[in-house]
Amino acid sequence: MKLLTKEIEAKLRANGRTRADCPPLLKLFNPCGAYTALFTELAEDGDTLFGLADMGFGCPELGYSSLAEIMAIRLPFGLKIERDRSFEASHPLSVYADAARRACTIVETDFELEQAANQHHNGGPRHAQG
């Protein structure tokens, strides 16, 4: 499976130019492990992604990842990192980051995301990008 469609790539690049707190456009995951990542930006180099990554150790973090390195990962049974084709973000990345810090993992449940979003709207902690 192709990790980036032309449409997603164009949107990620546009977000990379604005550096605004956008909803994630791309969710990648390990089909046989704990890795999950939500990305909002792709740098002009066409390789550097920015987003929220969860390696499964209980401390998801915002940062940069190499698309080439992600694509080079080979998993058991010939599997590779996959794109969640059904993923649609409901909040900006900062809300996912806040919810992930509370839960110690990336979450997508409406309840946990709404709690994090409400914290934002009520003047709670904000997490700026790069």
Overview of the molecule:
The chain contains four helices and five strands, in the order αββββαβαα. By secondary structure, it is α+β, with helices and mostly antiparallel strands. It has one domain. A hairpin with a 5-residue loop joins strand 2 and strand 3 (48-54). Helix 3 (93-103) packs across helix 4. The radius of gyration is 14 Å and the shape is globular.
Mean pLDDT: 90
Counted by DSSP, the helix tally is 4
- State the helical fraction: 25-40%
Largest sheet: 5 strands, antiparallel
Topology:
Layout (H helix, E strand, L loop, with lengths): L5 H13 L7 E4 L6 E7 L5 E7 L6 E6 H6 L9 E2 L9 H11 L6 H12 L9
Antiparallel strand pairs: 1-2, 1-5, 2-3, 3-4
Helix pairs in contact: 3-4
What structural keywords apply?
alpha+beta, disordered C terminus, 32% helix, single chain
Short description:
The protein is α+β, with helices and mostly antiparallel strands and 130 residues long.
